[in-house]
Structures are given as C-alpha cells and as structure tokens.
Task: inverse folding
C-alpha cells in the first residue's frame, strides 16, 4: 500500500509527491519509475496509469518521491489528492542508470521535467566529481531543483529560456558552453528528445560515453502494450520497450528525433 504524505506545488504547475509505502519488491535505483493510477479513489477514470520517474528515495523512512507537472486530466486529478490518500502503485519498473564506478568525472544534463530523475542519480554519485547542468523555461521552474542539488554540494549551472541566469538558453547550450573547458569521462542526460539527440551527438563526437533516459508515453509499463517502443540501431533487435529495456539507454543505442 502507498499513502500520500505530501503533495505540494513547488513551482508553476510543478508538484512534489511524497509517498509512504509498506513494502517494495526491491529498492528502486536511479532512472527507474513507478506506474501510478491517477484516478480518484473508487474510480477508474482515467483508466491508464501514468509513469513517474523517481526523484528521491529513502529506505529507512519508507518514502519515495516524484516531481510532476500538471499537463492533462490525470495529473490534474493527482495534484488535487490530499495527504493520507491511498494510491495504487506499481514499481519499481524499468532499467536504471549504471553508476559506472570507474568514471570519476561526470556531467549530468537535465532539461525541463527531465531534471527529476537526475537528482536521485546525483545522490548516488555523490563521491564523484559531478557537474550538473539544468535548464528550464524560467527561473521559477528551476528554484526547487536548484535548492535540492545545491544541498548535495555538486557544481551546479543553470540556464533559462525566458530570462538570463548564467546564460539565456537551454541546458544543452549551457553544457556546450562549458564542454571545451571541462570534458567529462561520462554523461547522463534526460529531457526533450531533441536535447538528448544533440547531447548524444556531441558526446559521441568527443568519444565521451554516457546514458540517456527517454520520456515516452506508456500504456502498461510492463512491456505488453508496446506503446513505448523505441527504434534501435541494432541489427538483431530493431525495437526496444522504454518501460522494460529502458527508459535508460546507452548513447547511440536508440534512434532519436533531432
């Protein structure tokens, strides 16, 4: 059983959902997600669950956290649910990020709501030399994330499309601005697909390894419906499911829309 501890707005249309649980089949890893039924208690509308990437996890306190944006009927209903409400939740699901212990100098690049899964990853990478590049539409959307990442003691860089922070632009433009000065051993990225494609292209050009997490619509979350299929570059497996083989893939593994 999962029960809401907190469900509060932390930015314009952006909510932090904190759940308490009785038990999990296993502790979640960075990059995995949970599939949550977002209807009112006793209702099946909407029918399909929604996937939410893990923002933070605390095994001792039996808490798991998510950050989501209200974008449609399901997330609107979810945003209105109060503390103590019980939720129907499946997870953890999907393939996580690999922590790659031999990669000491790492860059994390997050755009928009793609920032959310990188926080739990950054916590697990805390012993590494991390540089974090975050971008969103405006400063208001970044404030909550910035405060959380600063708490980890990482080197943090911020950009916004509508106003100048370090630069005026996307997380991609921000990262490229620093790349020549500090080339990483490895990159992790999540955000809009065009951003992922550009990060991937630049990283591969510079012989930098890494992983990306795709954002896909998912019907079942367990690999049955195939609604989240991604075209791959592999001869022996033309498609992979974001909910099972992903959402985390290696750079160059899947075809991205540039």
Result:
């Amino acid at each position: 059983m999962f029960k809401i501890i907190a469900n509060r707005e932390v930015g314009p249309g952006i909510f932090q959902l904190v759940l308490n649980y009785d038990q999990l089949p296993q502790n979640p890893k960075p990059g995995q997600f949970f599939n949550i039924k977002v209807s009112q208690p006793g209702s099946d509308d909407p029918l399909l669950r929604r996937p939410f990437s893990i923002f933070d996890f605390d095994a001792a306190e039996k808490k798991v956290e998510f950050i989501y944006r209200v974008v449609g009927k399901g997330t609107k209903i979810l945003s209105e649910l109060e503390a103590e409400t019980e939720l129907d939740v499946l997870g953890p699901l999907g393939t996580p990020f690999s922590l790659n212990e031999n990669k000491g100098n790492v860059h994390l690049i997050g755009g928009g709501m793609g920032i959310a899964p990188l926080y739990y990853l950054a916590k697990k990478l805390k012993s590494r030399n991390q540089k974090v590049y975050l971008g969103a539409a405006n400063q208001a959307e970044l404030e909550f994330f910035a405060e959380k990442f600063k708490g980890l003691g990482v080197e943090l860089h911020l950009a916004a499309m509508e106003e100048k922070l370090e630069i005026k632009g996307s997380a991609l433009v921000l990262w490229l601005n620093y790349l020549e000065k500090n080339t990483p051993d490895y990159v992790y990225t999540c955000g809009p697909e065009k951003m992922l494609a550009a990060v991937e292209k630049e990283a591969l050009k510079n012989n930098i390894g890494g992983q990306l997490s795709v954002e896909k619509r998912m019907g079942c979350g367990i690999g049955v419906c195939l609604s989240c299929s991604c075209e791959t570059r592999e001869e022996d497996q033309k498609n992979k499911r974001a909910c099972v083989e992903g959402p985390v893939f290696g750079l160059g593994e899947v075809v991205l829309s540039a």
The CA atoms of residues 116 and 231 lie 24 Å apart. The first strand starts at residue 2 and ends at 11.
